[in-house]
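Write out the 3D structure for:
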Amino acid sequence: MPLSDEIPEWKALRDALRDLVARAGGRAAAVVDASGSLFCTWPVEASVLPLAARFLDRELTEPRCLALRRGGRLLAAHPAAPGEDSYLAASFGGIYVLVLWFDGPFDPDFQKARLRRELPRIEALTAALPPPDGPQAGEGAAKQRA
């Protein structure tokens, strides 16, 4: 089941990312997971894909992915020089990472506080997303036990 505005949970997550970008004065935001899957972005356009790919290559290397899957945490602030990606990222829910990109340098302490306030909402919205393969995708184990 592709994610679209027809799925209210996905629209709510996308709108939360849009609001975060606006309040933070950011450029874009995304939720990714430790396997490198891109769950949701704002804006919803192709320009975010290269940002996400560079972030994944830089921050979600195999040791970090493994650490996340084993309960580790990720908090990365990269207020970059001109010409580099400038972002702040924080993990949540065991395997997910919220990434917020900026057009240039930013105040890491101020934006970390903002991200800490937003993470519970983003986590709840991410957890509410339906399974990508449809509503019955997770029922196999439950049916076998019955």
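The first strand starts at residue 28 and ends at 33.
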